[in-house]
Amino acid sequence: MLYLDNSATTPTHQDVVDAMLPYWTDVFGNPSSKYYAQAVDAKVAVDRSRQAVAELVNSKADEVIFTSGATESNNFLLKGIAMSHSNRGKRIISSTVEHPSVLETLRYLETQGFDVVYLSVDSYGRIDLKDLKEALLEKPTVLVTLLWGNNELGSLNPIKEASKLANQYGAFFHTDATQVIGKVRVNLEELPYVQLLSVSAHKFYGPKGIGAAIVRKDDMGLSLKITPLLHGGAQENGYRSGTHAVPLIVGMGKAAEIAHSRLDENLQQLTKLEARLSQLLIQQFGDVIHFNNDEQNKIPGILSVQFKGLNNEILCKELAPVMAVSTGSACSSSKPSHVLQEIGCSMEQLRSTIRFSLSPYQSEKELDVFLEL
Known about the structure:
Blueprint: E1 2-3, H1 14-20, H2 22-25, H3 37-57, E2 64-67, H4 70-84, E3 91-95, H5 100-111, E4 115-119, H6 129-138, E5 141-147, H7 159-168, E6 172-176, E7 196-200, E8 211-215, H8 246-261, H9 263-285, E9 289-291, E10 302-307, H10 312-319, E11 323-324, H11 338-342, H12 347-350, E12 353-357
Helix pairs in contact: 1-8, 3-8, 4-5, 6-7
């Protein structure tokens, strides 16, 4: 079966599995302990993985805070910044097409007295910088949070320009970068105003249950004040308490090493595969299909396609013996896509939409299965 749901999750790379194995059995110590080999070796492994994640996004190692995944990172960063810095204002600016873990967190913060502005998006899911500037001008803002790459459409937001605007008006800037890691070049040294960033390992061939929050140091090298989501033993610079999940951290570190070393190769292969899949879909289905995504300024390897007159859930089930595809975000699979609604799709159009998300480890030959449909 051809797996085409890589935006939902990716298979764990075999090298990642191999790297993790010793830390389930032999190197089982708590890295917060100090005096014996299992603990010292575990700490060395955690530090090495932290460095690998930092190199993947070009940040500093002590800016990498390990979490259970991007959902936790989003909750921690949004709640923590809002609660710690409400003196800057109680307004938060986001967009209507964010991941549910951001939208639901923002709805919670609204119950705590915060005013959240949800920017509308264009027909491909991107915000307008003019709308962001107008919202920043209206009232003091504590935080701007915008999705870097859309998980359903692949559309990339203007993160560099948006973060600069946020800084000009005294707001912190956060981005959920879950979908872009390993598929788009991320260089935080070139993005000085992106202060907060969320990632999950299982989106780039690492294990599930591990991710990171990147918390940038300020110009003086000082850590940001952020109220922790989890209190306790003060691990992770006091930001995230709890015994380190060493095997998972090692796995994320190895996945980061692989993604970093293969980035150019991955980008080239995903671009090639997307072009081939688009060609096959047009060849096989012609006017029956319509692409919801555009072709430029997007994550390579994600296609959102309407199959006119066909129910997407039924189509997914019929395709299941030969390929794995989805109707959209795995985190809101029980609801109609809010992303497609926000870009102007009718209920009929969103209920006929399939998302294909490719892997750089796949070949063009594998896509020939579409010739048999």
